[in-house]
Amino acid sequence: MTDRSESFSGSATIDVIRTARQADSSTYMRSEQLNLAAYDTDKIQNDYLEVYDPILSPWTDNDVKLLEIGVHKGGSLELWRDYFPRGTIVGIDLELPEGFIPGERIQLFKGSQADTQFLSEVAMSIAPDGFDIIIDDASHIGELTKTTFWHLFHHHLKPGGLYAIEDWGTGYLDDFPDGKRFDPKPSILDPFPCHSHGMVGFVKELVDEQCAGSITLGRDEQFRLSNLESLLITEGVVFVTKMVPSLSASPNPVPAGEGPGQTTISWKSVDGKVYVSKNGREERLFADSPRGSQQANWIEAGSTHEFRLYNADHKQLLAKVTVTRDRRIKPFVMFGRLADVLRRGTAS
Ligand SMILES: C[S@@+](CC[C@H](N)C(=O)[O-])C[C@H]1O[C@@H](n2cnc3c(N)ncnc32)[C@H](O)[C@@H]1O
């Protein structure tokens, strides 16, 4: 088994064709605690739980809000209900399963995955702060899957949340509406349909998105990082996690001392900029790149400096941190300085 994982641009990671069997064997496998025979879902026959288990392990004990698009008989919703004992499970389908009783912690909604208004209504009623996990196991048609993905990813998936797209290999099947058997040497006379469209084309679009930082490098106005924190492509399921914007200051508070105090501001976003406001006054631009680390060497005691990370159009506040400075030197710092003076005195 080969692991062809490569890292680009520091934080962006693309794992191509890595199987779950390669995951750390110590990983907690939640599905092993369930009676899988009780659930009518092809996720089990397809061995998808082997892939899901290591990826879902950080969420299993949380109050997750999970949305699955494509319900069929409802078996996967029952599986997720038991997999996440504290979770809220939401299913969407064009046709709701007859005779299925959702019961506790499962909710069903009838509608199309391409109807973005419908998707938003469901999301706002169940998960106004966003879903933790979204699974698309519905049409497996490229254009529909793509519309659903970008709408839910941008508007209804929490930062750090997981989006799984199942069965993307349908794009390589001749009998799928937008699929086509792979031809390693397509005829120059008949190169279409090609795999730039359909499910495979959509997955390739995600690969491009993961490398947005490299694609836009050197294009000053357009430079941005990926909306994706990570992209994992397995044979059956593609997993995307959403970038988590961050902003921090170190040290904070800035230790007391003579002269202006200094802290290092570090941040990460897709296309954000950092502003600073002193003592609640009008903010000014501190840094205009989406990711970086920069010193602020004018931190005064008795003042508050609020650093704010906004998105590119300055409409959304992504993160903020208030930096202050100690007025008095802390006893252990004082002791350290005294020891330094004494040591220097003894040495000379
Ligand atoms: C593969 S089945 C889902 C299986 C289920 N997730 C499981 O694991 O047992 C696909 C489902 O997607 C639904 N579907 C197909 N096109 C859809 C669309 N445009 N919007 C919503 N659901 C759709 C179908 O009605 C079908 O029930």
Describe it for me?
- The protein is of the alpha/beta class and 348 residues long.
- It folds into 2 domains: 11-242, 3-Layer(aba) Sandwich (Rossmann fold), CATH 3.40.50.150; 246-323, Immunoglobulin-like (Sandwich), CATH 2.60.40.
- Helix content is 24%, strand content 28%.
- It has helices at 42-45, 48-56, 75-83, 116-126, 142-156, 198-210, 212-215, 331-347; strands at 4-8, 12-16, 65-69, 88-93, 106-110, 131-136, 157-166, 228-233, 237-242, 246-250, 261-268, 273-278, 284-287, 291-299, 305-310, 317-323.
- The strands form 3 sheets. It has a 9-stranded mixed sheet, sandwiched between helices. The chain has a 4-stranded antiparallel sheet with strand order 13-12-15-16, with no helix packed on it.
- Strand 8 (228-233) and strand 9 (237-242) form a beta hairpin.
- Helix 4 runs parallel beside helix 5 and helix 5 packs parallel to helix 6.
- The longest helix is centred in the last third of the chain and has 17 residues, at 331-347.
- The N and C termini lie far apart (64 Å).
- 32% of the residues are buried.
- Residues 1-23 have low confidence and may be disordered.
- The site of S-adenosylmethionine has 21 residues, from helix 1, strand 3, helix 3 and strand 4.
